[in-house]
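Fold this complex.
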Amino acid sequence: MKRIIVVAVCLFIPISTMITVSAGSNFEEYNYSTTGEAVPAPKTYEPTAVYYGNEETDLKFSAPQDIATDNDGNLYLLDPGNDRLMIYDVDFRLKSVISFPEIGGKQISFTGCSSLFVTEDSIYISDKENGLIYVLSRDGRGKRTITFTPQAVVDSDFVFKPMHITVDEAGIIQVQAEGCYNGLITLDADGKMIGYYSANSIQTSLSVLASQFWKNIFSQEQQDSMKQTIPVEYSSVTMDSNGFIYTTTKKTENSTFEIKKLNPYGENILGYDDTYSSVKTGNGDYGDLRTLYSEGKNIDTTFEDIYVDSEDFIFALDTARGRVFQYDQNSNLISVFGGIGDQMGTFALPGAVCGYGERIYVLDETKNSITVFEPTDYVRNIRKALLLDSECDYSQAVKYWEQVYQANSNCSLALSGLGKAAYENGEIAKAMNYFRLADDRTNYDIAYTAYRTQFIREHFVLIAAVVIVLVIAVILLLNYAKKKEKRDE
Amino acid sequence: MNKLLSRPYLPALRVIFKPFDSFELLKEKNYGALWQPAVIVLLLFLTRVFKLVFGGFLFNMTDISQVNLPIEFATVVCIYILFVFANKNFCDLADGDGTMTDVALVTAYALLPYIICSLANIVLSNIFVAREQDFMEIISTVGFLWSALVGLVGLKSVHRYSFGKTVLTVFITVLFMALIAFLLAILFLITQQLIIFVKDIYSEIVFRM
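Structure:
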């Protein structure tokens, strides 16, 4: 009998632990080590719910294109397959369904619409097929239609196909249009074009250099038939709470600067560390660090959408592998979650990412679903600590970093944060050790400079004595060598 | 053979400070023991290892888990042997007087300034902070130029060339090294193919029998 119980217990234990493990998420999370290797990381975001939209309306989503949230947490879903716009409240109860709103006595259809943007009082919807932008009030009544009026700089054969839009407080619209490699198109509130804004620059690579070389040799006709070297177009645009514009690019030539934060001059102001260029995150290389070459295709991270939350953390969506990458304002990779698959928390064709508070919504265009992700304590601690670090409040941040460190002793962000706190406390040797473990050479240099100054001050007499003895020894040695040479001759 | 082994020892430090006199001794009076180049090449290998292990954290970018010591050792020794072999054989064609022993000794002595400056840099890399890196670059440049000078003077003396001709032959020697490496690679590949071919025939016969 006893033996049977033991066997039963033995059988039961692995099964029960398996269930608790698999009950979490259906994807494996990772982050990059200091040497650029992908290593397993603790869970950061957990899928808590998946919505298909048929609970209230008996109608599933059909090829939904975009989601957006407003300041009250209402979720707006653009569902062109059913020709409707759905508004949910913060607890995902259906508030209203808008279809065929009237603008100027004319019913509009959402069939060709690709994206929406919600401001304080209006909903902006871009219609890719008809090249229009519709403005609705927040309760779904039609306000006006914005038609595109091009400037002289625009090519005559350019067709305006707005994809993603942002609207600032003054009503200025930034449009990411399909096939527009000159950057974003800036429109005023009436749709009159103001100009282009911040194109991607052409990144130098071997193929670009080669085509540049051949251009010097070829005749004009040959040059015309060559592939043109043009900047890559943006894939998405969004705006943070301070009004800064963020863009994503699907892929760039060198796989760097796919995510950009633009200032009013159109320059990238997202912080990154370019002092030590090695294969690691935080030096302007976004998404997965390594590409996979499979079946004749190079599979790289393909950024499709971007969302910046109220605390300025950046979430970028990769359609190729269905992952969401979270970055802070210094391009440090905080978490990677999601994946391609059929289970909860994985996607078939993720199309848009959005969020409210600390919740993250991911829209799947093929599964016709919205997945809700909630952060774990682990990533909450990292975010709190990073925010405190950015305010230089290292001693407050240290208690969060310690919890992160206990969960994941490989987290270089935590090691670096602990180092900063130790340095502020005056424990320089301890700080140096942390920075060394975190491979944070910039901060190690600062700590080491302080350490060396302190060391020289404390042991000045000894160091001076050693230097003097060495100098005397060298002089004596040289004299001896000279004398010996004379004797030899 | 006995003559080779009984060569007297030539102080290596004297060579790098007074290359002209020392290389005359080497050429005319057969100074320079054969164990000396072996020790110096071993020192070069050790310097490279020390740089990886004891180099200061701020200046040491190499991921130590990616380092393979046997390959490092083979690289150092192979490049040394390849240079000596290529230089001796090319200079034989270009009226050079140096023997294989001469070239091997000269090349080894010429490595010494580089080794000394690298060792100094390893010590300094543990003392300096990032903004003082320029000093280390100056030291390594000095070491490199000094090595080049000693090497050129040495090759000039043992081959009895003019200075310009020495520079030219060294340049061609490097091309020769590339050529030899290329030929060796081809030889390796062809041998591999041959082995596979013989193996195939063998297994074919075994299956048919």
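Helices of chain B lie at 2-5, 12-17, 19-29, 35-54, 69-93, 100-125, 133-159, 163-208.
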